[in-house]
Amino acid sequence: MKLPIGMRIPPRIGKEGIEAVAAWAAEAGLDALDVPELTTDVKSACDKAGLAIGSVDARGVAQLLSRDEARRADAVVSVKKQMDGMAALGGKVMFMCLVPEDATLPRADGFAIWRETFPEVVAHAERTGVYIAIEGWPGPAPHYPTLGCTPEMWRAMFEAIPSKHFGLNYDPSHLVRLGIDYLRALSEFGERINHCHGKDTEILHDELYECGTLTATFGAKYGFSEGSWRYTIPGHGEVDWGKVAVRLDRLGYEGAIGIELEDHRYWGTIEAERQGIVKSAEHLAQYFR
């Protein structure tokens, strides 16, 4: 199975500018970039470096889930324009995390808003040939308001909107931290996967004893953690990437695996970020190349 391996652009690498980012990514052996916005400059830099566009971030997503109807309407117009712009430059996958404007909004209430707002958004995605990929990060503590982060929610959302232009960004790291079977999720929802992230999660058993699955009372010991778990680069956590690769191959997935660098050991300097990306790509290449 051969799939393009790419990355979301970490902050210090990103400060070098898109041309330098693309050139370094190609030199490091990557095939694609997940970009915050697809502009002519971004497209030109990726083309020059021989990189594909993995995904393009949607902007103003929280406003799509606003309690205010007028703000939602404005956000729908904005996202549709973003789809037009990325499609004109060859972008196919729009990445979004459905965190509502009000972080205290109960998920059931957020779902009711989503159900009213998103049919128009997805209909425009169909017209433009764009595929939406929603991220399974549950959102900030203590309310965890994000829509589309559990099988319960995916089932309801895909029943409401059957179109494959609305689907998942498969990121097993979030499922591991939530205690959800990441391989079973592939089996049940694999047909709706529009993009994948290469990220892992280590379960910290000593910390799990200390605070259970609750967030740590006095602060997590590590970055990219809430107590009993921490995000890691692929290969340093619980995910069996060989089994993930087998299932993606069976599903016929042809998109990119975008490394999302969230690991405190590979953070804080541009050298650390580059090392984290390279180590991640080396591990993933064992299964996807």
Structural class: alpha/beta
Cα-atom radius of gyration: 18 Å
Write the element-wise H/E pattern from the N-terminal end onward.
EHHEHEHHEHEHEHHEEHEHEH
- The residue-averaged pLDDT reads 97
Strand order of the largest sheet: 1-2-3-4-5-6-7-10
Q: Could you tell me how far the N terminus lies from the C terminus, measured between alpha carbons in angstroms?
A: 6 Å
| Count of helical regions | 12
Beta-strand content estimate: 15-25%
Q: What does the main sheet amount to?
A: 8 strands, parallel, barrel
E-strand count: 10
Helix content: 40-55%
Q: Spans with pLDDT under 50 lasting ≥5 residues?
A: none
User: Could you say which overall geometry the principal axes of the C-alpha atoms support?
Assistant: globular
